[in-house]
Amino acid sequence: MLTAALSIFGAPTQAGADWAIKTMDFSAVTIGIAMKDEKTGWTATTNGATAVHIVKTEDGGNTWNRVANQNETLGLVMGIDQADTPFGVVTTGLDGSAYSTDGDSFFRSNVFPPDLASQSIKSYNHLGAKGGRSIMASPGGVCLSNDMGETYKCKDHVPFKYGKAGRYVAWPSPEVIYITAGSWPTESPSENVHYLSSRLRMVKRDAVKGVASVALEVGPFNKTGPVNGMYTAELWKSSDGGDTWENLISDTGNYYFNDIDCFDDKHCVAVAEGFGEDGSAMPGAHVFHTTDGNKFYMVHTEPTDGSSLMAVKMLSEDEFHVGGRLISPSALGLHSTDGGASFIKLGAGIRGEMITSMSFPTTNHGFATSISELQVCSLLEYKHYFGATPA
Question: Is residue 274 within 8 Å of residue 256, measured between CB atoms?
């Protein structure tokens, strides 16, 4: 586990657009944020010993309130997105997924298997029967919805080379789908530990008053026991709505993939990471970019071992953000406006946090969830600051 000795606060950055802490110690477990605009958005929260609660803001993240109605049996939310309809929202996570058409009443989605665990969900407005399409990653492939998350049809036949390891998805148009996959060395499997990445775990502990205690842990896993597996990375594409698949990247021994995001069918960015202490031959964090939808090039590497990139958000054909935790020098993410030809590091003034998801209602205003070295989740905000960026 990462040491908590490092200061969470750092020196202010120079004036300009940058990440800043919006709400420190927001929740024991918060992964995923979806902002409809600069004022209205959704995320989920729990103190670790109570059921997850979906919460909503209407003042740009200054205050959050529980939604009017939600299914309390959804487990833990690990992904959330806002559909391109006035108040459509979809969520996914451990033990189930949910949808809302009004932003206040959430209902369990009809998906088989019903207890599908996923951490990647994205929503789009193209040709959705009710105004939106949604897609989730599954271990064996993808689950697709054309009614804004109410029902899903799973296509679990991606021919992965290294076992069922689907992780993140993008669905830029009705026929074109991308999915990343990968694995990494881990300790012996346990029903009480769910790995979101090599360095991020969700841990269930003994139930108290009928509710299991849950927590996020960030940092290397405990290597006192047997270590299983190796690094594998795969990136696949379908051009016929998920019926057939073409492999674009296949790699062993170096890294695994996290998030992928696309601006359109041809312009996409994916992030990957590997760690030397686990046997990676290419330790560090990596950014892959494509301009034709077929050839992905590694356009950037953070070579310092321990660097991690988990989230990505494309804003145009050429502009995108990637987020995680970078080492030497410390930062929370990278910003490119020229298709990955150059990058600016962001969040250098914030210590001890790692971005886990991002949402950008506009190109100049973003929000993110993060986890600290103290194992507590916070909310971040990206915008232009005049003078010093607040920590």
Answer: yes
